[in-house]
Amino acid sequence: MNYPKVSIIILNWNGLDDTIECVESLKKMTYPNYEVIVVDNASEGDDVRILGEKFGDYVHVIENDRNYGFAEGNNIGIRYALSKRTDYVLLLNNDTVVDAEFLTELVRVAEEDNKAGILGGKIYYYASPNRFQSVGGKMNWWLGRFKDYSGQEDVGQYDQVAERDFVYATAMFIKRAVIERIGFLDSSLFFGMEDYDYCARATKAGFRVLYVPGAKVWHKQGASRRKLPDYPETWYIISKEKGLLSYKPKPVFRVFRRHSPPYLFIFASLSFMIYESLVHIFGLLRGAFYYVSRGELRPIREYITDMFKYMVVMFRRGAVKR
Q1: What is the domain extent for residue 288?
Q2: Is the pLDDT assigned to residue 75 strictly greater than 80?
């Protein structure tokens, strides 16, 4: 087996403990030819210094002067990787841990299929190690609906390499040729939609998006979102794009206009936003019932406090505008 060079890009934003655990899991991988690039999106603490001291030359740390968001933050790492003549780029969330064979499996499948452009693995919930968060998904650009098979227990039902419409940027393995053909992630998308968009662009360019079951990763879903109340200004920036419940019209319209039939993109966009909002509301209600039924009110109080922080920031920003 050949061992092409892989550049693993981890975006860090005030997530030092998660990033350390992620990097430690990478050190256990069997694949021999890779580099680790941590892009720090202007963390407020000593994350850059601590990561440099702890991992030394094993990690190349890029320190950004401000928070560029998810898409452009990763683009900064991708540009550096391309300058070092990498063959593949792996975008990996900092709140993940990977299996020892994770990278070996991705490279093996990518090298066997010349048309493979973007690959993703079997993503489990960190808190439920045998339950899927995602095994890739299907997107209906006509109706604005997607399916990602989340929540199912792994009983071997998705153990074959399969073509998908998208894989999440939680762990997105990209062939260099894809980046050279279609460019970088859409930097106007601060947080969200970038994975649907990038996979659709790659597919239109003639590449295949593949799900690789042997590449296993465990994800602490929502770790970045849970930090937002402590950084309300960043929360405000994200909410301007995504909305407090789900996705706001501007970025959704931009992506669906790019990939949906011209006469259906408004319908598809609205369908996507309504569906996502309902799923979010249902999740909040289900969570509230779960905690109330057990007499655990602390999480509910914390959520209400977080919402209050957000409203204060919104009011202040509104006052500034006036």
Answers
A1: 231-321
A2: yes
